Every structure is written in structure tokens, then in C-alpha cells.
Amino acid sequence: MRTVLVTGANRGIGLEFAKQYASDEDQVIAICRNDDYTDELKIISKKNNIRIKLADMSDFKSIDILQNELSGIPIDIIINNAGVFGPKAQADGDLRQSFGHMNYDVWRKLMDINTLAPYKIVESLIENIRLGKDKKVITISSSIASIEDVSPGVNAYRASKCAVNMVMASLAMELKDQGIKFALLCPGWVNTRMGGGKAPITPEVSVSGLRNVIDNLSIEQSGKFYRYNGESIPW
Length: 235
Ligand SMILES: NC(=O)c1ccc[n+]([C@@H]2O[C@H](COP(=O)([O-])OP(=O)(O)OC[C@H]3O[C@@H](n4cnc5c(N)ncnc54)[C@H](OP(=O)(O)O)[C@@H]3O)[C@@H](O)[C@H]2O)c1
Prior knowledge:
Elements: E1 3-7, H1 12-23, E2 27-32, H2 39-44, E3 50-54, H3 60-69, E4 77-80, H4 89-92, H5 104-131, E5 136-140, H6 155-174, E6 181-186, H7 203-216, E7 224-227
Parallel strand pairs: 1-2, 1-4, 2-3, 4-5, 5-6, 6-7
């Protein structure tokens, strides 16, 4: 039995992580930004191996409070999953992250939630990871952050995920001798509120694949960028 902490566990991919780990009898610490969580999380949290904790990834004081609340508790796996895509030009005609129309407040917000918050989570909960057995820190990134495979648009989102890739790869080097393993994982194009109804991959399939990659993650692979099916993604 492991203890797995998942941010953004309210819905989408994060909720699916909580469901799958809990049904394997692992202990899940499900982080939500407020207590207005979905009915599905309410139902599954009745199982006594899911504990809901509140923290807003854009409010670092709430992450400090979380750190205090979890003090001394071993955590085997942290999954930095909470994320925001920002304005969608294609789906909604919202150009606020398109060239010529960039809204810099939007960009800063994406950096806060997608880049700074995962780093802050690691800084705040590193003692818990040191106490855990698995010692794994997973960050859900996106293949659209790959510079070698770049295409136009959504520059703020891409930049925020590219930056989180860099800082987690850097921490992987810094903490390798402590046995702490990091991975940047792309879930694929998944049918969630972010991915939209046309996305071909279900959260169930994506998260089963991601869990397999997480289970097999070795210290030699630490800091690398993988797709949910285990393929390597170029930076
Ligand atoms: N879906 C895809 O196709 C796809 C592809 C590549 C990468 N990803 C990545 O996968 C991760 C999960 O995405 P998803 O598809 O499950 O998205 P989603 O359905 O939009 O869910 C996002 C989750 O993040 C939480 N969140 C957002 N802002 C937060 C904040 N300030 N504090 C705490 N929680 C916050 C949301 O909570 P609320 O319910 O409170 O808003 C929700 O639980 C993200 O990092 C995303 O970038 C997704």
C-alpha cells in the first residue's frame, strides 16, 4: 500500500488517478482547490482510503497550510496534475494567448498554476517524499511543450509546460543522490473538460498507461519526458 498525493483531483485526469489508486487500496490524498468538489469525488471519498485536502495552486499560502497539515506523513508518489489551458482560440475564438492579442495577465496566471505551483508543491512536501518508500514526483506536462515538435499557437500554455519540464528535469539531477525520481508525463489528448469532447483518449485509458509508466520509473529514467504509453518525447 502506497500513499499517493494528487493535485487537481476534483475532475478529469486527477479524479481518475484518485479512483484508480484508491481501487488498488492505495491511500490517496486528493487535493482540490475548494470544497465545491464534484459529486463523483464526494462519492468515492466515502471510501476511507481517500482523504480530501484543500489547496489552491494559485494561492501559495494555501500550499503552506497543506505542508503543515501533512507534516510527518510519508508520501510515496506526488502527482502534480492540476493545470489550466487558458483561452482557446480554436474552440472558443478566444485570442488572448494568440500572437498579436496576448494577454500577459493570463500568461502569468498559467505560469503560476502550471509551472510555479508544481515546484512549490515539491519544495513544500519534499520531507514527506523523503519519508516515503517510492520517492516519485510526477508532473503532468504536455507533448505540445516539445520544442523539437513545435506547432503554432497557445504560446502561454506551451511556455508554462516547457518551463515546468525544465525545472523538474533540473530537480531530478539535484535530488538524484537522495533516490528521488522525477518524470514529466504527457497524458495524450484526453476527453476531459480541458481536452474537450473530440479527444480520442478516455481518462481511464490515459491514467492506466500513466500509472504503468509511474510504476516502472527507475532512477536512471529520472527527469525524462514520456507519453502515457511509455514512448519517449523529445524536449
Ligand atoms: N486533457 C488533455 O488532453 C491534456 C493533454 C495534455 C496535458 N494535460 C494536462 O493534464 C492535467 C489535467 O488536465 P485535465 O484534462 O484533467 O483538465 P481539467 O479537466 O480541466 O481538470 C483540471 C484540474 O485542475 C484543477 N485546477 C485548475 N486550477 C487549479 C488551481 N488554481 N488550484 C487547484 N486546482 C486547480 C481543476 O480544479 P477545478 O475543478 O477546481 O477547476 C481540475 O481538477 C493538466 O495539467 C493538463 O495541462 C491534459
